[in-house]
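Possible regression after last week's pipeline update?

I re-ran a chain I had predicted before the update to compare outputs. Posting the input and the new output here so someone can diff against the archived version. Not blocking, just want to make sure nothing changed silently.
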Amino acid sequence: MSKQAVMTEAPVSHRLTVEGMDCASCALKIETALKRLPGVGDVAVNVTGGTVTVTEGAVAPSLPDMAAAIRRLGFGIANDVHGHGHDHHDHAHAHDDPSERDKPWWRTAKGRLVIGSGLLLGLAYAVTLAVPAAGTWPFLAATVVALVPVARRAFAAATAGSLFTIEMLMTVAAIGALFIGAAEEAAVVVFLFAVGEVLEGHAAGSARRGIAALAALRPRTALLIDGGITREVAAEEVRPGDRVLVRPGDRLPSDGVIREGRAEIDESPINGESIPRLKVPGDEVFAGTIALDAALTVEVTKGAEDNTIARIIRLVEEAQEAKAPVARFIDRFARLYMPAVVAAALLVALVPPLAFAGDWDTWIYRALALLLVACPCALVISTPAAIAAGLSAGARRGLLIKGGAVLETLGGLKTIAFDKTGTLTEGRPRVTDVLPGALSVEEVLRLAAGLEAGSSHPIARAVVAAHGATPPAAADLGAIAGEGVTGTVDGRALFLGSPRAAADRAPLDLEATAALEAEGKTVAVLTEGNAVLGLIALRDEPRADARDGIAALKRLGISGVMLTGDNRRAAEAVGRDLGIEVRAELLPADKARIVGELAGDGRGPVGKVGDGINDAPALAAAQVGIAMGTGAEVALEAADAALLHDRLGGVADLVALSRATMANVHTNVALALGSKALFLVTTVLGVTGMWIAVLADTGATVLVTLNALRLLRFRPYQSS
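New output (post-update):
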């Protein structure tokens, strides 16, 4: 999967939250109905999240028309329809009754159908026992009354373009059963169908609670500091620049920077890390995290709609809508499967009586039972349910994965390329040696600090910190990729960079630099014209978790390779310590080339771990780009996956989660197809009847959903 940044205006999309959409059949009906409306481009249905995202086509579709089309199918709209896209916001009022998701099952529409059809079925049995002469009429009446809402939904879907729905198959089967005198079984089947829908709804609701749990991390209120007075306001009212008071035990209402106080912060809600972090004035803090032991004054930097929790929720929802390749294949298969089974049912009803003088009632009954096996709900939901559960499980543990395709690809990675600085190492190098040339140690540091004062690069910060005073002003600053920086300080035209680049400018004692590099140090050389003014050596120690993270990947069968612009000796010293292959002295373009070569040499698919910006070419060349960072903007936006906890062992966790998810998908598909194949055969042979067929269909759907939910208990890969 190659990625390329393209600056184009994003199409406008609208997200609708739909009530009662609990199975894949529901999703297909909604998708078909919406695509028939003018102005509708693409439709992405997320059954697990209960949302439908509509992308505009050449013209803007009518939001009330979309809501009306969904309601005609028997579903509800849980909230205002709202649009979001590139510089676009609009609202169409499409209110419905309060959300049914929070109601007990017996107060929902589907629950009322279960109770009603169950009472009618019980009454029919009672009347038959009390008045045997009534015959099958009580069951016929119970069937017809309970079937009316199902038939209404069936014909609404048919007029919207979805003919082969489970409601239509149920209606045809029930009416057919009445015509062949199987009224009692028809009533039982309609009741079991209603029970199955409630069970499916309960299973889907359990799957949705992964996102709901994330949303619950946001506090409803905040303590706003306004003119020296603290007052409680809704968290949504807090704006960037406001200051809020966070008491011990409080969740932070939004992202911000600590201005007063210091406290241990529990960041586990957003990154899964159980060990609190000490935060002091100037440190970033994130929405949903908890101040444990002291009060803080925090200046808000992000509004409620754009804080870390809100962005994680949005990205997980969008990821659930992005189908994995295996899910798209299953969708295509299911669209062919249902018409094929309906055609098979017709053959079962007609061929034996016409060709072999079979009993019409017997073979029509078997054909009707076969219709009830035709719905592919279990098969279609098998993949998205597992993918959605995997994405939610990852988000809870600080593993943000942008879509089913990425989740599927992660498990197949054979090689992962790492940046060195800040990824495999602490990213906080310290100056260890200063070797004067034409200038004193103090003057070398002073001039170098002047050149690096405006840079955020870790080496630049180390040089400035080593100087320890206000650096002199620099002019005409410039950066040469892979070599170093140039500029003028105190009227002197200077260069500070790698020994290799410095040797092209001035005579350099390479033995001195080689000795330092052999100790795993990075050497920066300061030159003026053709004179070497001095050498600065720095060392960046490997991260404490790097060795375990690399070892965990090896146990998963994945090799690692370090790609760095650092000198070969320093890089190899780190590589030996970590047990990882090293490619050093690389320019950004070299890293992208090597990623491509690794894939071409049979070592792909290849993943790339970095900061998401500095190595954009290499991230684009890799099958999966993984960013590291504790809630930083780049960690959420720049790559295919992000480790919010900034822990290198999380790379192995991503791979393990992917493999667990795909194993779950394969199990689900086997369960769905296996149960369908079994009951198709037993139904045709007359071993199982209509009510068993309904139970088999519902049972398989509930089973694959519950199996997918096991992924929510995923535990990070243990490197010990």
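Follow-up from reviewer: compared with the archived run. DSSP finds 23 helices and 28 strands in the chain. Marking as no regression found.
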